[in-house]
Design a protein that fits this description.
heterodimer; A: Hypothetical Protein Tm1070, Chain: A; 5-stranded antiparallel beta sheet; globular; B: about 425 residues; mainly beta; Hypothetical Protein Tm1070, Chain: A; 2 domains; 3 helices; 27 strands
């Protein structure tokens, strides 16, 4: 009894101190991030198909051991050699999961097409050998992706048993220790070696600092606490930060010329922008992809407004002109535009995450060369309705 | 009994601090949200990183905004002939020797951007003329306010004024080659930055976003096309600023400042220099070299005094082995990682042959001024451990495949910096 009173008193004093420090609900930056540590990392664009491959980098930014449960989601076609057909050649949504462990401040790297084996005898780099793939403390067995993989990678910070929220003593898992990057590499005979790099999108855990993440296998991103199963008490907060309400992209009009190339001996040039979109809500238990309808609001340099929409189910990768001719140079009449993207369907619909890649094709010296640069669009606002990531039973420490 | 209670409070406070210190979230500089100040740490014309730089700047709000922009020229110049230089050896002319003095000169201009409007320009050309109604394809300032007009200005109490880009004129960079920084500050209709100025109607100054594209295009055998893109770094105005009453003095601090503070730690995941690209099928093989570009947060643009920071580097390889070094960042620093700690890059702690693994995590803590940064990652076909040879080889390789670059924004990890950073506007 005395020990229980002491424990309660300690907790009360702790909460009082936390309140004085302003660490309770209402003080947080609650957005997803591409430049700070987070507990969920999403690499929306992972390609190991045809003439492209992807280097995945992930690091632990803390001074403690960190574990993560990762999912590759393959969104390629059932038969990649044939065109898409909703019945005879649908888009897949196959997940492959694996676990990694990172020691304090440890970075690690692997190539999507080859994965990373668990082999402590890998030779380190030397002054005469700079090809030391897999040297270092192996984070675990990272599988190689299937052939013709196009999809996403998602890693969720957990304890050593796979619990995302708390340890066996139900102490809140301090999170937000992961950061990541992806480098898309061109391996084809044309443009061989061209690279484009983007930061993985991070979703912070427990944005209000109240130990909100539980271990029910349903990760709640945002929400106002009133929508099951993402309910929480007033004064508490969501398990993870909300997905953005709006994404903002500065881009070339589709087919616009490259002004820097036009100042050279290039005979022609063309710039296109490709978007890769994944829904925030994903159910790895049922493996049923979540569709999200996206509204585009486009403003050109003359302040003329255009609009478009498209629907993405599971994973979408397309150029702007594939969405609508409103993005073309002929329609926009200017070289540049600003596009605002938001999910349609109100708070019950899913949010989405996005990266962009800009392709510059230049005809010069008798051939056409293409180079690309990847970047993260800007975000604005938080979605009100929660997004859910459902981890399959047995993969979130629930069997302990 | 009283002594026991104090012990309890002490332990509670300590436990709370320990539990929260690693993961306390602070408002920080950002490269993925609109802001009141946007910084492009590297703008390059004429090499070595880019033949030219395309600057994109846009207004994310529904109100017009003025951006007061500054090119900060970090070129060195020879004392004997004034030529642009990066080393003293470049200052030998005839029988005279000169010193290569680092420079820091600002050129400022104004850009007026209408609601949700994007604007872009090449750093080498700027934008000087307004678009004619039938002149498609020529770089020009879109809306002159007479032949072309924007929507109604929501900041105009009369409701009659229309938005335009009138007043905009963007000069080219002051010299070629040029290497330096671009900084743009949101200005209110009253002519003052946040928080002295009122950004009607919603009093939100965080409306600017930007990107920079570093590009190389050259004919050759084979020809070269190379593109790297990064987001401008945004410094957001605080919603509850502590206005010091000096409009031209911008205080960057989460603790009693006007704008968000610069980070205490910059975190960079990178390939070690000379590391070979691990992707199968790359022919010929390529080696990585990373050039982080640092600019100080504190800058006195009135007296032309650049900020100075001692950058302390803590490096971890994939074996969790730890290395450290430091150097000085004054005004602008774009130095290959393996030149950070030595003039012999093959012996650097940032060389893959020394650290033993392909990748590392480097944590940079600034003393003095805060720092912000982007990273340029360069992949060369040259069989070299020298980053400068790698860059030059990529620029002028007559027989092999030219190198390729990709640019990425670095991560931040922050607690409150001991002293605020100050940007003094002229």
């Amino acid at each position: 009894m005395r020990r229980q009173r002491e424990r309660v008193g300690f907790m009360r004093r702790t909460l009082a101190v936390a309140g004085a420090l302003g660490l309770l609900a209402g003080v947080a930056s609650a957005d997803v991030t591409t430049e700070q540590g987070a507990s969920i990392l999403v690499w929306p664009k992972v390609i190991a198909a045809g003439t492209r491959d992807t280097i995945i980098q992930i690091a632990n930014t803390s001074n403690m051991m960190v574990y993560a449960h990762c999912f590759y989601v393959n969104a390629g076609l059932a038969d990649p050699s044939k065109p898409f057909d909703p019945i005879f050649n649908p888009q897949l949504w196959q997940e492959t999961d694996f676990d990694i462990a990172l020691t304090r401040q440890q970075p690690t790297v692997w190539v999507a097409s080859t994965g990373r084996k668990f082999d402590p005898t890998d030779s380190p780099c030397t002054k005469t050998n700079f090809s030391c793939k897999d040297a270092g403390i192996d984070p675990g067995l990272v599988p190689q992706t299937v052939q013709n993989f196009t999809g996403e990678l998602k890693c969720i910070e957990t304890d050593q048993f796979g619990r995302p929220g708390s340890d066996a003593q139900f102490n809140a898992l301090p999170g937000n220790h992961l950061k990541g990057e992806a480098t898309l590499v061109n391996t084809g005979s044309r443009n061989n070696g061209d690279v484009a790099k983007y930061n993985a999108i991070g979703i912070k855990a427990d944005p209000n600092g109240v130990g909100a993440v539980d271990n029910d296998g349903i990760l709640c991103l945002g929400g106002d606490g009133t929508t099951a199963p993402c309910t929480y008490d007033p004064g508490s907060g969501p398990e993870y930060a909300a997905c953005p309400q709006t994404w903002i992209l500065n881009h070339f009009a589709e087919g616009a010329t490259d002004p820097i190339a036009e100042d050279t001996s290039a005979t022609s040039s063309r710039v296109n922008t490709e978007l890769t979109i994944v829904p925030c809500t994903e159910n790895f238990e049922t493996q049923v992809p979540t569709p999200v309808t996206i509204q585009f609001s486009v403003t050109n340099e003359f302040e003329t407004a255009f609009s478009a929409s498209t629907t993405v189910s599971c994973w979408g990768n397309f150029s702007l002109q594939d969405i609508s001719n409103a993005f073309t140079r002929e329609a926009l009449q200017t070289d540049y535009a600003q596009t605002r993207m938001r999910p349609a369907g109100g708070n019950g619909a899913s949010g989405f995450l996005i990266v962009a890649e800009e392709f510059h094709a230049v005809a010069i010296g008798g051939s056409t060369k293409t180079a690309s640069g990847a970047f993260n669009p800007h975000q604005e606002g938080d979605r009100v309705g929660p997004d859910l990531i459902t981890i399959p039973a047995g993969q979130h420490g629930d069997n302990l | 009994m009283r002594q026991v209670r104090w012990v309890g409070w002490t332990f509670a406070a300590a436990a709370m601090l320990l539990a929260t210190a690693p993961s306390v979230v602070r408002a920080d500089v950002t490269s993925d949200k609109a802001a009141a100040i946007v910084v492009y740490p590297i703008v390059n014309v004429g090499g070595p990183f880019a033949q030219d730089t395309l600057i994109q700047l846009s207004n994310t709000s529904t109100k017009p905004i003025e951006a007061h922009c500054f090119y900060l020229n970090a070129n060195g110049h020879c004392t004997n002939n004034g030529a642009i230089c990066s080393t003293g050896a470049q200052c030998f002319e005839g029988n005279s020797f000169g010193l290569c003095l680092p420079g820091w000169n600002e050129t400022d201009f104004r850009v007026f951007i209408t609601a949700r409007q994007p604007i872009a320009w090449e750093a080498s050309d700027g934008l000087s003329s307004f678009c004619k109604s039938d002149a498609l394809g020529e770089p020009c300032i879109p809306i002159d306010g007479t032949s072309r007009r924007g929507p109604k200005d929501p900041t105009d109490p009369t409701g009659t004024r229309l938005q335009s880009n009138a007043g905009t004129r963007i000069p080219p960079v002051p010299e070629t080659p040029f290497i330096g920084e671009l900084k743009c500050v949101a200005i209110s209709p009253s002519g003052d930055p946040w928080p002295s100025g009122i950004f009607a109607p919603d009093n939100d100054p965080n409306v600017l976003k930007g990107e920079a594209t570093l590009e190389n295009v050259a004919a050759g055998a084979p020809p070269r096309v190379d593109v790297g893109k990064y987001n401008a770094i945004g410094i957001r105005g605080l919603s509850n600023p502590n206005d010091d009453g000096i409009p031209s003095r911008l205080t960057l601090s989460n603790n009693g400042g006007e704008y968000e503070g610069c980070p205490n730690v910059l975190v960079l995941d990178h390939f070690f220099d000379s590391a070979q690209n691990p992707v199968p099928g790359i022919t010929p093989t390529r080696r990585a070299f990373t050039w982080p570009v640092f600019v100080p947060c504190s800058e006195d643009l009135l007296k032309q005094i650049p900020g100075t920071a001692i950058a302390q580097y803590l490096v971890f390889n994939e074996f969790e082995q730890r290395f450290s070094t430091s150097n000085t960042v004054q005004c602008f620093r774009a130095t290959a990682l393996s030149f950070t700690d030595t003039t012999q890059p093959q012996n650097s702690i940032f060389n893959a042959g020394i650290t033993g693994t392909l990748t590392g995590q480097t944590r940079v803590s600034p003393l003095g001024s805060g720092l912000i940064a982007v990273a340029l990652e360069y992949w060369t076909t040259a069989s070299t451990t020298n980053p400068i040879d790698a860059i030059l080889d990529g620029m002028a390789n007559p027989t092999g495949e030219p190198g390729q670059q990709d640019d990425v924004n670095v991560h931040y990890q922050s607690s409150v910096r001991p002293n605020p950073d100050i940007i003094q506007l002229p």
